[in-house]
Amino acid sequence: MRSKPKVDRQQKTVRDWSRVKLTCVGVFFLLAWLGLWTRAGYLQIVAGPELAEKAVRQHLASEVDKGARGEIYDRGGRLLAKSVEFEAVFVRPREVTEPEKTADFLAKVLHMKEQRILKKLRSSSNMVYLSWRVGDRAAARIREAKLAGVYFNKEYGRFYPNGHLASQVMGFVGVGDVGLEGVEKAFDSRLTGRQAKYVVQRDASGRRFFFDAQGQELANINGHDVRLTIDSQIQFFAEEELEKAVTDNHAKGGSCLVVHVPTGEILAMANYPFFNPNVARGISPRIARDHAALDVYEPGSTMKPLLVAAALQEHVIKPTSTFNCENGRYSFASRTIRDTHSYGVLPVNMIVRVSSNIGAAKIGLQLGATRLHHYFELLGFGRPTGLRITGEARGLVRPLKAWTPIDVATASFGQGVAVSPVQLAQAYLILANDGVYKPLKLVADPPDDRPERAPYRVFDADVARTVQSMMREVVQEEHGTGKTARIPGLETGGKTGTAQKAGPHGGYGNKYLGSYVSFVPAIHPEYILIVMVDEPEPSHYGGVVAAPAVRNVTLRMLSYLGRMPETVQLAQAPAPAQPASRKEAQAPPAAKEPNQADKEILAIAGAAGGNGKQVSIQSVPDFAGMPLRQAVEILVGKGIVPRLEGQGLVVSKQSPAPGAPWPTDKKNQVVLWLSRPS
Fold first, then answer.
1. More reliable by pLDDT, 180 or 85
2. Which of 83, 110, 534, 600 could be disulfide-bonded to 69 (CB atoms 3.0-4.6 Å)?
3. What is the Cα 457 distance to its own chain's centre?
4. What are the transmembrane regions (predicted)?
């Protein structure tokens, strides 16, 4: 018999081992499956909320967008200040992989010190700005370098298209688009754009994109605009003539104001020296100040018309009252009051005309401390005018109880009292407005939401007009201190001022402030002009250093506005009364050669440009570039109805040519070709 137990046992052993292996594999997969389910359950149930939050932080981020700063315009909508978008470069120090190499490259591109950049790259902050304004070329080079941890952001910077025009009025902004001076500071909360947060998503490379544009489309985050009462063209005239007055007289600085009487709006507020707000970094605070509103001066003799108005209002004097001016020297209260010339007995109008300090002191003493101090308060001295700018000066008027008789005498001719140029303009606005208080205005929009001081009467209308007439004599009559401001054919009023400045150690030094206030026209004024020249040399009299500047601004302003009276023209010589012969009688009279004053008027009016071309002598003016309405008004005033060709509101050319004689047959003899403004 054959036996086979051994083979069977081996086969059986193999089968049993296979079963074990299968069992082990099954158990392993079972455990793995249970582990995965356990892990999944843990991630979903226990750690789920925390992981979801981390996922949101990784894939979603908030983007902060800042709106542009509002713009500033003049009264006619001409742009004075706007915001321009710039690239700002910043770094996230934790993402920078090669600080030394990165700092070396950025220092060359941004023109910064390498050590300064390296210090920022090693900062512990999450984000550090390197430069707020990066040019397009530099930004392109940095982007091409693809530096780790270096990013760009949109920022806004301020741009002033007219350079230094009205720079002290507007002020400027600093880092972060924060207003630092002038209107920029006073209306910073209105002008500043708001911030808005948007949810953005990152792709696999970390690049960001908006979920949608809904937030940006619906949210208006830009700042609001501000419109001033300033007229850019008149501001330019004021600045140009002020600069000439200051430099020609070797002065320290100066201010010029132009006020529209019917509305109280300030058309020009100029200060010299100028500065360019586009490059305001490091500018001296003294230059950036709006001296016309923030600085105070003793007004000097410009106080006298206001004093006379107060005395007339209180019936202390009459226009015919006379005062002994003591031949130029008057001893009072252990002090000596002097006049520049020796005068005897003078009526009130002559005291104003020749600017007698002694006469003014005696009028003030008759008025008395109580009433004089009261009128100073009514005129606005000692308190801000209410212009909507930061830090406006209050002026200096000492309490009534501190006044002595000598204080009354000196305050009567503008010493011992300090006012800002805008306070002086406010006081003269009352006088020009027939004695009724009207507030000055510098900002047209937004409207002022503060309680407005109600108008009140300071002087009777006949009193105000009497003083206006006295100011007319200052310019128009002989021996008037303001005759250098005279414009032949236009009656203006004015008052000169020459104030001795206080010394640094008390008392008065040898420095002066020359000033001039003008009414245009003299009676029922429509405009007030003030020029102050600080520390002029060698002459310091207001009639010498300030009055010519007022005259020139007046001519250019009226020419620009189309308000130049036809009486302001070159005089013609009359025809001979008894010609020597028949031939001479038939010959046309020769035109008189313009005198120097007439030549100056024509030169100044012609320099006004634009609408100033309408200044007429005895010939057809140049209408090119002039608004149609203005040209028609001039022609209708001459009895001529022009024929219009083309479409538009601006004259492009004309017939007859400028300078030709006025046509004798005025029917359809003047043709104006029109075009649309560019």
1. 180
2. 83
3. 31
4. 20-37
